[in-house]
Amino acid sequence: MTEKELKRSKDFIREIIDADLNSKKNDARVHTRFPPEPNGYLHIGHAKSICLNFGIAKEYNGFCNLRFDDTNPCKEETEYVESIKEDVRWLGFDWQQREFYASDYFEKLYEYALELINKGKAYVCGLNAQQIREFRGTLTEPGKNSPFRERSVKENLDLFKRMRKGEFEDGACVLRAKIDMNSPNLNMRDPVLYRIMRANHHRTQNKWCIYPMYDFAHGFCDSIERITHSICTLEFENHRPLYDWFLNEAAIFHPQQIEFARLNLTYTVLSKRKLLALVEKKHVSGWDDPRMPTLSGLRRRGYTPQAIRKFCEHIGVAKFNSIIDIAVLENSLREELNKKALRAMAVLKPLKVVIDNYPQDKFEELDAVNNPEDPSMGVHKVPFSGIIYIEKDDFREDPPKKFYRLSPGMEVRLRYAYFITCTHAVKDDNGEVIEVHCRYDPATRGGDAPDGRKVKATIHWVSAQHAFDSQVRLYEYLFIKENPDEVEKEGDDFTVNLNPDSLQILNSCKLEPGLKLAKSGDIFQFERLGYFCVDSKDSSAGRPVFNRTVSLRDSWAKIEKKEKSEKQ
Ligand code: ATP
Ligand code: MG
Known about the structure:
CATH class of the largest domain: Alpha Beta
Strand order of the largest sheet: 10-23-24-25-21-22-11
Bound molecules: adenosine-5'-triphosphate, magnesium ion
Number of helices: 14
Largest sheet: 7 strands, mixed
Structural class: alpha/beta
Number of strands: 25
Shape: elongated
């Protein structure tokens, strides 16, 4: 297959939709939904589902609803609803006026429940949660019928109505479907449809004290909204017979549930429960901590909606679970930023360099390329003077083999400026180098020698007198293990695998003066260091704080590591 053909080859969900359109199923309509539960912030896994559902709607000239699955008031909050809407919009999708809530349908769902009772297909059960679990049996043992299973329709109607009226305590009884306690599928063993729960609901407040279970509510919501393809993740495959059972019993419009593999990423947890634990236990600064895989965290980190959409398109959808290397996500971002980001110079761990033969009090403005990938982006001026800062790591007094950067006697190129040769280093009482002295070659202005002599390294720098101080934060993966859930000791949880070095705050970085005007969300490539964005929370006008979005592919760390291993 050529690349073009490969691109055109469709995933299995789009194939199903094509076949449905061909056979004029659902009057050849395509209508999907994205159904988040408002119990946390959206993460990159949700982005996969959003891109899929909204993407399909767009491709097939259909619609995609945003539906909040708000059936569990204990865990749900308006804050989450608002953040979800913001994140879906930010990703670039529009639900127009189709914003729905499962709670919009509570009355209708209640009627469906009454209908099931009337058909003898549901009953009020007085077993407690523990007993229900015991009666359910296991994968190898059949379940046992509840002693309440044979209640009359009349009695069930009366009890269920009284459940709604609040005549019973929380947990005193539940409404269950009457299906088959011997079904090989545990989900079909008389699942719970309604429970009593006195909790303030973020939309219906105290109107209800009974709430439908997800499995019961979901299919009905899909049907009410006339969803054609109800796309969900694989763990719901075993729930599909139940989804179908409800809709068949009610004999109403029947959407098709289709399951796909959820996104898993290395070094990342993608479960709202675990992400909430990180926030609550203050392992991170909040849902939008730049280390979090939430969309708000990724946004603050400098990820763009384009890069995330591209990533989702790239990984595609499949029917089997797999784990994607987080480098794939980072690469889709690098690819985009490489084309878009302005280049600038910043020195994160500064070392002072005095150029002894550069005239005192002189300074000049040199041209720095804005983006070598795109000459149309032009150049900008950077000031140069006789005292500059370079990275500490770019100097070694006693260089190991293959260290081509600055060391006594060695000549290097200062990016966009001159060749300099190191003469000597000055140390403090502890023997630490605090200043390096060099001489420059005025003939090499712009960075090339007229006599054709070469240097082996080009390093970045900023003019000491012109640079400004700023905070820069470097981020590493939040976990030290590819699979954070892998723990050695029983009783440990994923938090034992947190990376203690996932955040490094550098407080006296020296940045080229033009960066002072950078605004919240702006992204730059700091030459040789990576991509950095202006933090949207902690920056103010003229005082930008930078987050490292992602390192460059051949990052310094890797070179260092290689050097270290070569040394050994
Ligand atoms: P979590 O497991 O993170 O708590 P969830 O499935 O409970 O997520 P929902 O709010 O119910 O969260 O998810 C909304 C939609 O997003 C669902 O259709 C769900 O299948 C999908 N989704 C959630 N996580 C992922 C993921 N990792 N990959 C792909 N889709 C996902
Ligand atoms: Mg869920």
